[in-house]
Design a protein that fits this description.
heterodimer, A: 217 residues, mainly alpha, rod-shaped, B: 247 residues, two-stranded antiparallel sheet, 69% helix, proton-transporting ATP synthase activity, rotational mechanism (chain B)
């Protein structure tokens, strides 16, 4: 089908090309201009063409007198015209693929993957530090507990020491007090005895007096 | 006769006004072969845009991405996502192929819709999206075929061909036919969509030069993007299909 369309379109293309750019290499290949359905320009050979203007005029008139099918043929051009463009596009695409892989897909993909793994590593390491924080907290708690125990021990020790001291002092005081009491009691005893002794002597004198007074001798 | 010529004149006039050039090519001669120069020129522009923007944006990647890098990272993640959903876990080596397929078609289609190619006058034919030409789309579709054959053969060796008689040998002709219909449908879908889209815009512009074609142009942009996505997704799906093991 493609070849059919090409075949039908090729002469039209050569006509248009001849009116616009006569320096194309393709023209030399087809020296004979062929107008399949028109009798009028048949006598024209390329050597006899006077000017470009006249041929364009001729083509215009031929188009205007042509049946609509010829006019349609202008549009029915090489849609399915396969040629060297196809392999060139393949090669171009492959080259583009390798080039893009070199400058875009591989480096950026690698970079993104590395960043992903780095972020994941950082996240996991953050989890690790939370454990570390827990450890540190436990350590701090332990230290606090130890300190509290030490303090309470010191407190107890101090309490005991002060109690002992206090008791000692208390005992000393008691002893002192007792000694003084003893002394005072001894003093009192001495005084009692002295007063009893003096009282005894006085009692004898008094009893003699009483006897003297009572017994009138 | 006079009436006929009158009507034909009017018809010619319409052709002149609309200026629709379908299948008109600027031919270059390379070693005895002809090429469509306008397709090659526009494809070079597309390739230059792709490579240039990629080099500029990804030249010095930052941990906290800049705007351009961010966009390219988004595109890459999108391509990876497409490949991963279609191919599966072994999508890695196919990202460049799928990605280039998507980006090349997408930028080609949008260049046809957005870049003012028509300003540049060619001696013959006119500049348009490279995907406007059947050569380009068939080239891409054939590459896709080669890619999925390569994927299947490299994964399973000659055991790949056992898929032709799966699930029953009766389906052998249909399975073989599939290898021909896949590139055919891929290339003709893209070619037809882009060509039709540009034609609709050109015809509408020739009829009503202002306002009316704008929604159609936006529709064209949408279609272009969708077509690129469809082509890339289907290519990835074919590759994944030929790689997956049948149980």
């Amino acid at each position: 089908m493609a070849s059919m369309i090409m075949a039908s379109s090729k002469p039209v293309i050569t006509i248009v090309a001849s009116s616009s750019s006569p320096s194309k290499p393709k023209l030399q290949k087809i020296p004979q201009l062929s107008f399949p359905k028109l009798p009028t320009p048949k006598f024209l050979k390329p050597q006899q063409i006077p000017t470009l203007k006249s041929i364009s005029l001729l083509t215009l008139t031929s188009f205007s007198f042509a049946p609509p099918s010829l006019a349609v043929e202008i549009e029915k051009a090489a849609l399915f015209d396969f040629n060297l463009t196809l392999p060139i596009m393949m090669v171009q695409f492959l080259l583009l693929m390798f080039a893009l892989d070199k400058v875009y897909f591989s480096p950026l993909g690698k970079f993104m993957d590395e960043r992903d793994s780095a972020i994941k590593e950082k996240l996991s390491s953050v989890k690790d530090t939370s454990e570390e924080v827990k450890q540190l907290e436990e350590q701090a708690n332990a230290i606090m507990r130890a300190a509290r125990a030490e303090i309470s021990a010191a407190l107890n020790k101090m309490k005991k020491e002060t109690q002992l001291e206090v008791e000692q002092k208390l005992a000393e005081g008691r002893k002192k007090v007792e000694a003084e009491l003893q002394e005072a009691l001894a003093n009192l005893e001495n005084q009692k005895e002295e007063t009893i002794k003096s009282l005894d002597s006085q009692i004898t004198a008094l009893s003699q007096d009483i006897v003297k007074k009572v017994l009138p001798l | 006769m006079n009436g006929i010529s009158c009507s034909i004149n009017a018809l010619n006039g319409l052709y002149d006004i609309s200026g629709v050039e379908v299948g008109q090519h600027l031919y270059w001669q390379i070693g005895g072969f002809q090429v469509h120069a306008q397709v090659l020129i526009t494809s070079w522009v597309v390739i230059a845009i792709l490579l240039g923007s990629a080099v500029i944006a990804v030249r010095n990647p930052q941990t906290i991405p800049t705007a351009g890098q961010n966009f390219f990272e988004y595109v890459l993640e999108f391509i990876r996502d497409v490949s991963k959903t279609q191919i599966g876990e072994e999508y890695g080596p196919w990202v460049p192929f799928i990605g280039t397929m998507f980006l090349f078609i997408f930028v080609s289609n949008w260049s046809g819709a957005l870049l003012p190619w028509k300003i540049i006058q060619l001696p013959h034919g006119e500049l348009a999206a490279p995907t406007n030409d059947i050569n380009t789309t068939v080239a891409l579709a054939l590459l896709t075929s080669v890619a999925y054959f390569y994927a299947g053969l490299s994964k399973k060796g000659l055991g790949y061909f056992s898929k032709y008689i799966q699930p029953t040998p009766i389906l052998l002709p249909i399975n073989i036919l599939e290898d021909f219909t896949k590139p055919l449908s891929l290339s003709f879908r893209l070619f037809g969509n882009i060509l039709a889209d540009e034609l609709v815009v050109v015809v509408l512009v020739s009829l009503v030069p202002s306002v009316v074609p704008i929604p159609v142009m936006f529709l064209g942009l949408f279609t272009s993007g969708i077509q690129a996505l469809i082509f890339a997704t289907l290519a990835a799906a074919y590759i994944g299909e030929s790689m997956e093991g049948h149980h």
